[in-house]
Specification:
With about 180 residues, the protein is of the alpha+beta class. The chain has 5 helices and 9 strands. It is about 45% helix and about 25% strand. The radius of gyration is 23 Å and the shape is globular.
Length: about 180
């Protein structure tokens, strides 16, 4: 092997590593699936970020933005584990018989202290746990932002709609004034 071949092989290796890192960054595009309905329906008391226990085809579908959390909620089982229920993750298109069920319960990963606190709040005060946002971290882990929430009454919902309309009108007036 000549010196010329050594230089070119190391250059090729460097270029291929850069391509792989750029490709990996492209694959790690921002996944941010939100539950906008929850902001309207509930008043949030406390927020947490939980990991999700997923199978291979589930994470591949999430990376392709094929998931919905609008109708989902969280509940505890008999062992004190927290599960997200009714979260829809579409079946992976290239999966075979190892594919997952779209609406199965998925375990949430939190510290024991946080789980005990949440379970106590849910049982004693009748609050609920609602998923707010499904996202991927820098390392590619799927995380779920959840909130301890209290359901809003009808007049609270009307007040929220009124505030949103007022903000929109104010922004429109500011835009026209600055033009």
């Amino acid at each position: 092997m000549t010196k010329y071949d050594e230089n070119h092989s190391s250059l090729f290796f460097f270029i291929s590593l850069n391509f792989i890192s750029i490709f990996a960054l492209e694959m790690q595009k921002k996944i941010n699936i939100q539950n906008k309905k929850a902001k309207f329906e509930y008043e949030f008391i406390d927020r947490y970020t939980a990991g999700i226990q997923l199978t291979g085809t589930e994470i591949k579908s999430i990376r392709a933005s094929k998931a919905r959390i609008t109708e989902s909620f969280c509940e505890f089982n008999d062992n004190g584990e927290l599960f997200v229920v009714n979260m829809f993750i579409e079946e992976y298109s290239h999966g075979n018989y190892y594919n997952h069920k779209p609406k199965s319960e998925r375990r949430l990963l939190l510290n024991k202290r946080e789980l005990k606190k949440l379970e106590k709040e849910v049982k004693n005060t009748g609050l609920t746990i609602v998923p707010l946002r499904l996202f991927l971290t820098e390392k590619g882990w799927a995380k779920l932002d959840i909130a301890l929430a209290r359901g809003k009454k009808l007049h609270d919902k009307r007040e929220t709609m009124k505030d949103r309309d007022n903000k929109r009108d104010l922004a429109r007036i500011k835009k026209n004034f600055n033009s």
